[in-house]
Design goal:
Helix content is about 40%, strand content about 25%. The protein is an alpha/beta fold and about 140 residues long. It has one domain (about 1-135): Alpha/beta knot. The protein has a 5-stranded parallel beta sheet. Helix 2 links the parallel strand 3 (about 55-65) and strand 4 (about 85-90).
């Protein structure tokens, strides 16, 4: 399975960028990982993505799940043979309509309001936690 984080705008704070990269490096033990930072939303159309990819919009109004539920959901996609999952992460301005329309699912990371840069860290950590849970790795305990 390939996991892709597509982010509108750059993660400017070096320490947050380092955390995202650290967690995604850990995910690479379990899955292929790719990140794309796009300057503009229309660049989304130029990405080469698996036609059958599942698109997930990270959005405060999305479905709330706990870590175990997220792991079950991600494991279910993997077990059904989904080859690519694309997580769409907006910037401080929110999400353009083309991103919203592309997503099959909306996922909330928290009821709390998070900066877009911190939300990226939380998402990367939860993706790693999900794969660790699925593999029986001791990290999640």
């Amino acid at each position: 399975m390939k996991v892709r984080m597509v982010m509108l705008g750059k993660t400017r704070r070096a320490e947050l960028r380092a955390l995202v990269e650290d967690y995604l490096e850990r995910v690479r033990r379990f899955a292929t990982v790719e990140t794309n930072e796009l300057r503009r939303a229309d660049a989304l159309d130029r990405l080469r993505v698996e036609p059958t990819a599942d698109w997930v919009l990270v959005d405060a109004g999305g479905r709330e799940v706990d870590s175990e539920g997220f792991a079950r959901w991600l494991g279910g996609l993997r077990d059904r043979g989904v080859r690519e999952v694309v997580f769409l992460c907006g910037d401080a301005e929110g999400f353009p309509d083309p991103w919203r329309k592309r997503a099959r699912e909306k996922l909330s990371l928290s009821r709390l309001t998070l900066s877009h840069e911190l939300a990226r860290v939380v998402l990367a950590e939860q993706i790693y936690r999900a794969f660790a849970l699925l593999a029986g790795h001791p990290y999640p305990k």
